[in-house]
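A.,

Following up on our hallway conversation. Structure tokens first:
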């Protein structure tokens, strides 16, 4: 069946000559969301506040990203930045660990490399490295997303998960978060009708633009596509920032996050309540 799927995909790419026969550009809008499930001691936070906090956290992860692309390169960046939510008079601080978020992500799929311009606690870095190869398996399922026929693809990977922790009024639950390893299956839906080897965030490597991604925790789905817009798009690789590779940046980020957790941990004499939540990527 998988051989048949590959033949069908190849045929669709071939008949999509209206796009494939010419240089083209496009702008795709993606919406993101993430599962949030944090257990909190009911003696410290009542059920009404717990529910309110969960809703605010969900909104924190509902973001809009824009992918500007041509046949060989792309820019992916957030369209709108949401402020940290608040619960009554308390401040909720969300600390993302390893979520891969970036300010400007440039990818060149032809040269198999990326440049990630990112602001890490006020310091600008330019992460430059090779694009990771994803071991996609083409499936035989299809579905429509908007006007596009999409095909399913999956890959599996071992990931380290950091269990959510919480600190309320001096409790130090965040200082020693628990970690575990699990097998995570990522599902993509791509359309050969837009024959570019690209997609949102760090996802690519399929014979068509990826319109939807779900890794079991986060969902990214395309809500709008404009092909060959009247105003030509500008895909320019970022150049500013301290240049590091991905491994170096991960080490710097881990150190900075630990410093921030210590800096914002509750101290004696601080008024009000401070909620700090770790959510693993």
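Then the amino acids I'd put at each of the 281 positions:
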């Amino acid at each position: 069946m998988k051989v048949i799927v590959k033949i069908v995909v190849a045929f669709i790419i071939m008949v999509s000559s209206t796009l494939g026969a010419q240089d083209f550009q496009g702008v795709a809008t993606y919406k993101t969301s993430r599962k949030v499930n944090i257990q909190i001691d009911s003696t410290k936070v009542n059920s009404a506040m717990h529910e309110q906090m969960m809703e605010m956290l969900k909104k924190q992860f509902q973001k809009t990203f824009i992918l500007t692309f041509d046949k060989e390169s792309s820019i992916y960046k957030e369209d709108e930045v949401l402020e940290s939510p608040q619960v009554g008079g308390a401040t909720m601080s969300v600390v993302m660990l390893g979520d891969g978020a970036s300010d400007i992500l440039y990818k060149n799929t032809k040269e198999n490399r990326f440049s990630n311009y990112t602001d890490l606690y006020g310091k600008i870095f330019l992460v430059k490295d090779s694009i990771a190869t994803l071991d996609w398996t083409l499936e035989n399922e299809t579905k429509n997303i908007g006007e596009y026929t999409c095909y399913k693809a999956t890959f599996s990977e071992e990931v380290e998960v950091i269990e959510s922790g919480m600190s309320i009024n001096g409790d130090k639950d965040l200082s020693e978060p628990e970690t575990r390893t699990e097998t995570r299956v990522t599902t993509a839906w791509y359309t050969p009708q837009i024959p570019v080897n690209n997609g949102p965030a760090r996802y690519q490597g399929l014979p068509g633009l990826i319109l939807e991604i779900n890794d079991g925790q986060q969902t990214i789905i395309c809500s709008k596509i404009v092909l060959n817009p009247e105003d030509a798009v500008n895909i320019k690789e970022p150049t500013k920032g301290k240049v590091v590779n991905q491994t170096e940046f991960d080490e710097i980020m881990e150190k900075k996050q630990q410093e921030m957790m210590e800096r914002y941990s509750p101290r004696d004499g601080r008024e009000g309540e401070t909620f700090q939540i770790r959510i693993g990527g």
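The radius of gyration is 21 Å. Curious whether your intuition agrees with the design.

B.
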